[in-house]
Amino acid sequence: MKTLTYPTREAWLADRCNRIGASEAPGILGQGYSGESAVATYEKKVNPTLDEVIDATMAERMEIGTAMEPTIRRLFGERTGRTVISNDLSTVHVSEERPHVAATLDGKVDDGKGIVPFEAKNVGEYVASDWDNNSVPMRVQIQVQDQMYVTETDWAYIAALLGGNRFVWRRVERNQRFIDAMLPVLDDFWAHVQRKEPPAVDGTEATSKALKRLYGQDNGEEVFLPAEAAEWDEDLEAAKTAIKAAKALKLEAENKLKAAIADATFGRLPGGVSYSWKTTERNDPPREAKTISIRTLRRLKK
Question: How many domains does the chain have?
Fold first, then answer.
């Protein structure tokens, strides 16, 4: 392992296109957050601009997460008695074996047996259940296994603040079998980057947005599509038909519920589930002075 140190945060951000960070590995493996995918990560590598990188990094979720890291480190130290060494964001650890695989750590833990990676997570309440029963979300497991590979360590620590009011921490052991399976995927991805050939696309919104950025303008030419494109065409048409049928079924069910509720406010099903069809008033946007009444159908929890 070697380390790279950058004079400024901007220099660190600008150089991220030259290797795969541990936080990017989950998206490449199909386990990233909603805005991450292999194609989206590829697009950032082959078509980087400093402004785009900074915008992505300074998104509110990441900004708050960075601000919460000192608190998470402090809580970890208080709960475990282990020392957390804060990591300078301008320092990147790079694999000697694979210079295209790197990790920027949130910190390191000196637990008396070694100095190992520390990962801090500020987790929203809506995904806090991913940490129940002593579990660790797959995307976080991938990230720390990548960190252990790069830093040549055998375990790592993860600490998470869940929903702003619950703190958990985990010790994660190195899983060499998983690392051996992960590395060829990262190698293949990097080969795509070097060839400037996008990896296989998937059905994520992140990939859809990345393709729009990669191919923002047409050139008026015609290309011959591969033979398997006939299957894509069939899948697309079948999906459109299914969506149309689902929309019609949804509308019919909603209409039946509304007709059954009639001018009542609530309707209760035999199993205990309830629906509300309540009237609310709001200003009509084209004519702000006019108030309109709208009834909205909602399924209520038991």
Answer: 2
1-12 in b/e burial notation, b at 16+ Cβ within 10 A? Answer: eeebebeeeeeb
Higher pLDDT, 200 or 63: 200
Q: Would 123 be classed as within a structural domain?
A: yes
* CB 26, CB 138: distance < 8 Å: yes
Please state whether beta strands 155-162 and 115-123 pair in parallel, antiparallel, or not at all (unpaired). Answer: parallel
Q: Quote the tokens at residue 224.
A: 């011959």
Length of the chain in residues, anyone?
302
Cα-based angle 41, 88, 103 (whole degrees, multiple of 5): 35
171/42 same-domain check: yes
Query: Is residue 192 within 8 Å of residue 176, measured between CB atoms?
Result: no
pTM: 0.78
* Residue 39, domain extent: 2-214
> Are 180 and 126 within one domain?
yes
| Closest among 109, 116, 160 to 136, alpha carbons compared | 160
The string of pLDDT tens digits covering residues 115-141 is 999 999 999 888 889 999 999 999 999
**Mean per-residue pLDDT over the chain, rounded:** 89
Query: Within a domain: residue 219?
Result: no
Q: Nearest 5 degrees, angle CA 171-CA 174-CA 178? A: 125
Describe the crossing of helices 38-46 and 205-214 by its angle, rounded to 10 degrees: 30
pLDDT in tens, 250-295: 999 999 999 999 999 999 998 889 999 999 887 666 555 667 788 9
Q: Let me know if 261 is exposed, middle or buried by CB neighbors in 10 A (0-12, 13-18, 19+).
A: middle
How many other CB atoms are found less than 10 A from the CB of residue 180?
A: 10
pLDDT for the residue numbered 63? 72
Q: What is the pLDDT of residue 42?
A: 95
